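Supplementary notes for students who missed Thursday's class. We covered one full example, reproduced here. Read the sequence, then the structure, then the short commentary at the end.
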Amino acid sequence: MNTRLANFLSMALHPLLMPTLLFLTLLFLAPAPLGAEPLETLMKLAVVGFVFIYTFALPAYFVYLLKRWGMISSLKLENLKDRRLPYFVTALIYNALGYFLYSKNSMLFPCGFVLWSIAAVILCVGIISLWWQISAHAAGVGGMIGALAGILVQFGEHSLFFPLLFLIILAGYVISARLALNAHTPAQVGAGFLLGLGLSLASIYVLF
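Structure (token representation):
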């Protein structure tokens, strides 16, 4: 894989975009497990937009501020030392958003649970990053695969089969991209993928 394609895939399937893609998929293809069947299309789009702002735009802006203040050396968080604070703050933001959705409306309880499961993955990545550069990209795509697979099996949402299959193929490309860029070792991407997959599957079976 050439460097240009590897960089494109790393940006297009950034870990912070996984929650938005997950909610977009679930709300429009399998809304029942999230209790979102009664929601109109405009309301579903509003939820997706809300998730995008708080799970991507806000954490990304925080990372930008850290770079501007000289607290990290790169926006890509390539150094182990740069990754710690952004991950812990992002996990805090995700937890806060999950609580907001959980407390706002009983219909949004499952949305809060999903965000808490994602926050758990990010928190684990942050803790492991205190000493080892586990792959956040692999954890993100693994977490999304685990969530879709768990919901498909537990709720019989067969409409998720082809999106899940497509995501599994994309996961292979993302992992290959991280290896091509020498951002991680095979062990780091493998551990990240298994962490995301395992925690998401466990969360679906426990919380739902």
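Commentary. Helices lie at 3-12, 18-29, 41-68, 80-104, 109-128, 136-155, 161-180, 186-207. Residues 41-68 form the longest helix (28 residues). If anything here is unclear, bring it to office hours.
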